[in-house]
Write a structure and sequence with these properties.
alpha/beta, 5-stranded mixed β-sheet, 3-stranded antiparallel β-sheet, 2 helices, about 120 residues
């Protein structure tokens, strides 16, 4: 594989509804159920359509969307920078990741672009 010019990292939380008495399952008001709230991380290179799953972390259902994001990004960026020096990284996050500490972490990274999307809840 040739060294890509850019790479996009997508972080996305997803609800995993639970039933019964599983450990660390809690009620999540946004999803209106007892659930786990895992975060998954996908990687794409240049303009490729393919997405590669590079991380999946199981989290309790009552954590904030940004919980664990810095740790995932720190480890992933360390490995990506070593494998692809000079590549521009773009991180796409949903609004749940828009915590000051996550954005400050991204601001400190070299060759980093990021975008946070937010979709209002329509009732």
């Amino acid at each position: 594989m040739a060294v890509p010019a850019e790479s996009t990292i997508d972080l996305d939380p997803t609800d995993d509804p639970t039933h019964g008495q599983q450990q660390f399952t809690f009620f999540n008001r946004y999803y209106d159920c007892h659930c786990y709230l895992p975060v998954v991380c996908f990687l794409t290179f240049n303009d490729e359509v393919e997405q590669y799953l590079v991380a999946a972390v199981l989290r309790p259902g009552n954590v904030s969307g940004s919980c664990g994001a810095i740790g995932i990004l720190r480890r992933l960026l360390r490995r990506l920078n070593a494998a692809f020096p000079g590549v521009v990284f773009r991180v796409r996050l949903d609004g749940g990741f828009a915590a000051p500490e996550v954005l400050e972490f991204l601001d400190r990274q070299p060759r980093m672009e990021y975008v946070v999307t937010w979709l209002p809840t329509i009732l």
